[in-house]
């Protein structure tokens, strides 16, 4: 059921076309706002930046672990070196006279030197790993900082584009409000109800075709519209939009 018959002066009906055109502009602007390339670009870049930040933390953690490991081994080297120095001092002082104790002390000094050499080899290996880890930290940090700057630039472009769209939306909605104020309330109410379903609630009947759904009306439908009074609001049988008659309607 279409509800009660609505009547309106032909000029008022034609104003619906202006309203419909403004609604199409608003619809396109809202679509642009939702699908702005910078929105997707910002989300993608933000995700990349988050992943990169995680990689930086992991690299810094590895570099820190290696630094602590190196410090511990260097401390062990100092302990071994100090112990070897004390043993060497005892040996050089002549305090040890027993051949057995002397041999034991010499063996311990030799063992400590081997231990020191082994630890120093470990330090060299750790230093090589630290160098690679520090280089990775620097590389990832530079990438993160560069991507962060890129994200700020994307945000600036996004905000500028959104501001421009919002400006156009505000202007278009203001114009729409003025046009809507010139349309009789019952006709406007019907249009708004249809707009909720079809984005725009009215379309021109042009050369026998509804410009809303692009369907060509049948002879019977066109005859019924010809017979309708000029102030009678007619509807498209296919899409149910209000059909606005003009000299181009082909009636």
Q: How does this structure look, described?
A:
By secondary structure, this protein is mostly helical. It has 2 domains: 10-33 and 179-245, Orthogonal Bundle (Helix Hairpins); 34-165, Helix Hairpins (Orthogonal Bundle), CATH 1.10.287.1700. It is 75% helix and 5% strand. Helix 1 (10-34) runs antiparallel to helix 3 (99-180) and helix 2 (37-93) runs antiparallel to helix 3 (99-180). It starts with 9 loop residues before the first helix and ends in a 6-residue tail after the last strand.
* CATH fold-type name of the largest domain: Helix Hairpins
**Overall geometry:** rod-shaped
Number of contiguous helices: 5
CATH class of the largest domain: Mainly Alpha
Task: Give the total of domains.
Answer: 2
N- and C-termini, Cα separation: 26 Å
Question: Can you tell me the CATH architecture of the largest domain?
Answer: Orthogonal Bundle
Portion of residues within helices: over 70%
Low-confidence stretches: none
Main-sheet strand order equals 2-1-4-3
Helices and strands, in order, run as HHHHEEHEE
Label the structural class.
mainly alpha
- Assembly status: single chain
Strand content: 5-15%
Radius of gyration: 42 Å
pLDDT averaged residue by residue: 94
């Amino acid at each position: 059921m279409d509800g009660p018959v609505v009547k309106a002066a032909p000029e008022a009906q034609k104003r619906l076309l202006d309203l419909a055109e403004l609604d199409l502009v608003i619809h396109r602007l809202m679509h642009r706002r939702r699908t702005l390339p910078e929105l997707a670009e910002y989300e993608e870049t933000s995700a990349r930046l988050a992943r990169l930040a995680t990689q930086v933390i992991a690299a810094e953690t590895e570099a820190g672990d290696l630094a602590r490991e190196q410090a511990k081994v260097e401390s062990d080297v100092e302990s071994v070196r100090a112990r070897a120095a004390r043993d060497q001092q005892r040996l050089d002082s002549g305090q040890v006279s027993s051949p057995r104790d002397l041999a034991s002390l010499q063996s311990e000094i030799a063992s400590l030197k081997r231990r020191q050499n082994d630890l120093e080899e470990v330090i060299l290996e750790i230093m090589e790993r630290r160098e690679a880890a520090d280089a990775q930290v620097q590389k990832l940090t530079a990438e993160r900082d560069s991507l962060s700057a890129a994200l700020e630039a994307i945000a600036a472009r996004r905000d500028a584009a959104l501001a421009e769209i919002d400006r156009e939306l505000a202007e278009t909605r203001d114009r729409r409000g003025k046009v809507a104020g010139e349309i009789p309330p019952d006709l406007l109410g019907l249009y708004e109800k249809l707009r909720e379903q079809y984005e725009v609630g009215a379309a021109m009947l042009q050369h026998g075709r509804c410009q809303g759904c692009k369907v060509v009306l049948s002879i019977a439908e066109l005859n019924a519209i010809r017979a309708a009074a000029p102030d009678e609001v007619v509807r498209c049988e296919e899409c149910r939009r209000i059909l606005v008659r003009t000299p181009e309607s082909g009636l």
